[in-house]
User: Fold this.
Amino acid sequence: MKLHTFKIGGIHPAENKIAAGKPIENIPLPAEVVLPVAQHIGAPAKPVVRKGDKVKRGDCVAEAGGFVSAPIHTPISGTVMKIDSCRTPQGMPVEAIYIKSDEADREADAEAMANRNTPKRSEIELATLDGKTIVNIIKEAGIVGLGGATFPAHVKLSPPPGSKPEIVIINAAECEPCLSCDDMLMREQPKEIVKGVSLLMRAAGVNRGVIAIENNKPEAIAALTDAAAMVSGIEVMPMKVKYPQGGEKQLIEAVIGKEVPSGALPIATGAIVQNVATAYAVYRAVVLGEPLMDRVLTVHDGTTGRNLRVAFGTILATLVDNKEPEKIIIGGPMMGRTASTLQTPMIKGTSGILMDGRYAHRRETENCIRCGKCSDACPMGLEPFLLSTLSRLQEWDEAEANKIANCIECGSCSYACPASRPVLDFVRVGKAKVMGIMRARAAAAKK
Amino acid sequence: MSVIVTSIIVLGVIGIVGAAVLYVVAKRFHVQEDPRIDQVEALLPGANCGGCGRSGCRDFASACVKADTLDGLSCPASGNAVMKQIGEIVGLAAAETKPKIAVIKCNGTCDLRPQVARFEGAPSCAVLASLGAGQTGCPNGCLGCGDCVAACPYDAIHMNYETGLPEVSEDKCVGCGACAKACPRAIIELRNKGPRGMRVYVACSNKEKGAMAMKECKVACIGCSKCAKECTHEAITIANNLSYIDYEKCKLCRKCVDVCPTHAIHAVNFPVKKAPAPAPATEKLEEKTV
Assistant:
């Protein structure tokens, strides 16, 4: 059988998924949480609580700050201690809500946790829900894309007028090396995920759903195929292992063979892509009536790996026994970002903590030999060596003409470079700059 | 033989025809340009630094010639004397401008600002700024990779590798602002050079609350507003836990310098008073070169 994949570029880094097969451990709720208001792409959430307020588990503590935004819910009951700044893993300050629980709160939470898997909506009730209601529940539950980009899920499910969704693609590729949180979630909760997918399909008003899984996860494929067999319209599609298969545009091309036009939204192809963990969160929100308050992440230190279900706001250092390794990456080795501290809270986008010493140092940089391996590897068909140079020379017009804004920052170019040049570092800077210029121009044109 | 002769004749004829066409075109479509543009351009430094806000020296020269008034047109690199000459050429009065200089609003040297991470990537402030807070805990301070040094067209700014901070050379800096534009953290500000180079400024950009700022850097401005209370000229404002001295209002009395508990306010090029003021940047440079 020929496996599906995207056409151009791509790499295959060492998979290193040693946490695969390790059951998900539920980490107990912490006594204190720190909830940053900016956990997603878009406008930061606006706190709706004040110092001294009592909150219950599942209460909304910050409401969406705009359409492209998501509310934030507290995973513990307790008292709001303060609203102050906290640090992102990269050391940048961000506003956060500090909540502390007491003995009574912890007892109440323990009871809530014990009953968390009892459905709040009956099957009949579920069957009568229409698409709009489901999208609203997703919006209120603060669900964002849990693959890492944390794009609010309800925005993708509310396509702009003129576009017609045809298919929901569930991104279960997990092409990022070292991470296996989605893999384990699929093995342990296949029925719930399939339910979530059918709810997403109803929310989008489509009757075809594809769960795309790379075929290095045979157990997950088997589990989901079993679970999906009973539901019509949902297909499990094994994919060839290739990075960045989990990129939205790459996945659409791999599954339905249509390319997302440059500068257009993925919906232009009729596809809505959601992560598999997002589908699970949708199940929890709609069926169990539980807002997004925790997620699964992989902790990987080079020799051992664990998959943990952790409540948002938990300080990451407590998950790794306050170890201070040589280098910490939040996320996977390809898309993840280096952290300077673990004294920072778990947020919706934290998909992994990587402390593998093998990734600790950069190789020494040599001169570009014009071999073109970066261009071969680029899944967007760009010329990274050129974009990197243009960005370094601050030739923004030329960079824009060479479609720097199409870069998905997957890092395949830097990975492929035999001279170990920091290709993506400069492209990323240039992309941010060029997109700023483009936005300013669009705003000026509107006036 | 005949081949060579025909070639010479054919090429010769093409050459003559081409020359005739070029001559006619040059005469017919001659663009009359104001000769004063060349004169003005000759007075300018020719560094195309962009300090005037134009794309280069020639652009500035043609703007001067076309302008109805020279207000708002000034070449920071040339100074008032040259602007006066330009004014004479174009027949307009040149506005006097105060000379400016780039000021580094960060004082967090390596020993005062603890390092929390080590950066191995491309030595560029822009790249480091895109990754997070940088190598120290301060999310607003100097990143130390020298994007400003690379941007300076006058060789007026250099990294001091002992302090990890850039230093501005007093006599070379013309105040064009190329460094300020290059700095991703916007810690470089153009301020009035002041009489005999004397100026007072807050050498910090940290916007964190006091306790946090102190943790990150021992010489951070903690926003205590002692300086603002001390100032009798209403030159000091506090915003985002950070003090700012308005150089137009500042009378250089230096009262704020003495009250600052973290020594974040710097007074440079003043004659030595009772307690020695922090050494100005130029003196440090001279010490090193001796």
